[in-house]
Amino acid sequence: SAVISQKPSRDICQRGTSLTIQCQVDSQVTMMFWYRQQPGQSLTLIATANQGSEATYESGFVIDKFPISRPNLTFSTLTVSNMSPEDSSIYLCSVEGRTSYEQYFGPGTRLTVT
Amino acid sequence: GIQVEQSPPDLILQEGANSTLRCNFSDSVNNLQWFHQNPWGQLINLFYIPSGTKQNGRLSATTVATERYSLLYISSSQTTDSGVYFCATNSLNNAGNMLTFGGGTRLMVKP
Lengths: 114, 111
Prior knowledge:
Order of helices and strands of chain B: EEEEEEEEEEE
Low-confidence stretches of chain B: none
Helix content of chain A: under 10%
Helix content of chain B: under 10%
Low-confidence stretches of chain A: none
Structural class of chain A: mainly beta
Mean pLDDT of chain A: 93
Number of strands of chain B: 11
Oligomer: heterodimer
Radius of gyration of chain A: 13 Å
Shape of chain B: globular
Largest interface: A-B, 29 and 25 residues
Number of strands of chain A: 11
Distance between the termini of chain A: 36 Å
Shape of chain A: globular
Largest sheet of chain B: 6 strands, mixed
Order of helices and strands of chain A: EEEEEEEEEEE
Structural class of chain B: mainly beta
Distance between the termini of chain B: 40 Å
Strand content of chain A: over 45%
Largest sheet of chain A: 7 strands, mixed
């Protein structure tokens, strides 16, 4: 399976600011995914990021709030913009595994907004 | 879209006990994954099991796709098994495959 790293691992941010989360994979992958996990909840897909095209967002998530970049096949960023306390969550990136149905996850970024 | 439900939502075990976690899904699926989320938030792949039975040490999983459920068995539980167990299955969105997660089973194993 791919080795996935995320930066930062955690952060405490002030309301109204923005944070960019980085996801790095040790091998080339076609699709990368960004998930949000609110406190005590399950994971929800924010968007799917393919290299060379705009990310595809799920219902309830918009590009202005969660802009995503995918400059190459091993890297992606997710920005959480104009943060509010409701954005306090763990943000995780994932990639497809050996089959397109398996996914492997990075260690997550734990965000607290005050 | 597909619905994924897990039971029980919470489970407390004494170390050494066995347990069965269940995952029901609302539609036919051709894949299913089980994950363990440790207390630090890391999601660890346990099984990719679209059908049949697999075993890995004290853990095993069975998926009966025709009846739309999967089971995760934990035998001789240890305190390090504590955390949240998620099942997830794929559905198609505009971008391709996406994972839909169940609500999770929060497990606490007491020494």
